[in-house]
Known about the structure:
Blueprint: E1 8-12, H1 26-38, E2 43-45, H2 58-72, E3 77-81, H3 87-99, E4 104-108, H4 117-130, E5 135-139, H5 141-144, H6 150-159, E6 163-168, H7 173-182, E7 188-191, H8 197-201, E8 207-210, H9 217-228, H10 232-241, H11 243-249, H12 256-264, H13 281-296
Parallel strand pairs: 1-2, 1-8, 2-3, 3-4, 4-5, 5-6, 6-7, 7-8
Helix pairs in contact: 1-2, 3-4, 4-6, 6-7, 9-10, 11-13, 12-13
Amino acid sequence: xxxxxxxxxxxxxxxxxxxxxSEVDFLAYEKHLEAQLEGGVAGLVxxxxxxxxxxxxxxxxxxxxxxxxxxxxxxxxxxxxTGSNNTKKSIEGARAAVDAGADAxxxxxxxxxxxxxxxxxxxxxxxxxxxxxxxxxxxxxxxSAVELxxxxxxxxxxxxxxxxxxxxxxxxxLHCQELLARAKRPISxxxxxxxxxxxxxxxxxxxxISVTSNVYPKQVSAMVNDALAGxxxxxxxxxxxxxxxxxxxxxxxxxxxxxxxxxxxxxMNPSVxxxxxxxSAECRARLSAVMAEYEAS
Length: 297
């Protein structure tokens, strides 16, 4: 199994669509990837929630991963989202992602089903044992309705050597601290919340899986690089500077605001697939004002 450096900015990539949402706009996607790499991101995360993965076909997911790997050319890690609330489907998705060239896979906790901690343990264990690549576990109780506990995380670290890191979107910096304090082997934790990146890095996280970096890869990378270098005061100032932007990015159901922001920059259509809808006129106006103020600062 290849080593994986879980450090820096990993962009939770949006998936550009045609104006009516019927097709993936692969040309816009490749241009978006190039902009991310030019902005200094360390990782590309296709086929996650921000990429509207529940609405993507299997063939679309494969092509997005293939193109991510081809464009990256070793300049960034390709971490593909593959989890679902169906263990068998998650295993198939993980294997398909590896076949398509993913360097690692990200497994979200099963949503809606609300399994017990034992169910989460067995679900993740089955997926981890099915592939020989690094696994990143995505803990986001606000969307999945279940939280992978620290105790269960420690069990998984002992049982699954290829579980190397966590995307922590618990919103609780104490969770991150306890896991780092109790882990018996090296692990990496990436913030799953743009607004908590520097606070989490101040206690040991090594970066972020970011939505905001879709729009501002260079600026988010500069903030994270400051934190990694121990320049926490400078990083904190950059975090505060991004406050209004981060808030606007989640003012409506993600990734509609991020896509609207990219459309304002002429990068892609703002279209999303149902059940999501495009950002409202009010959201677009707020984004335009916030972005103009941020870019002028």
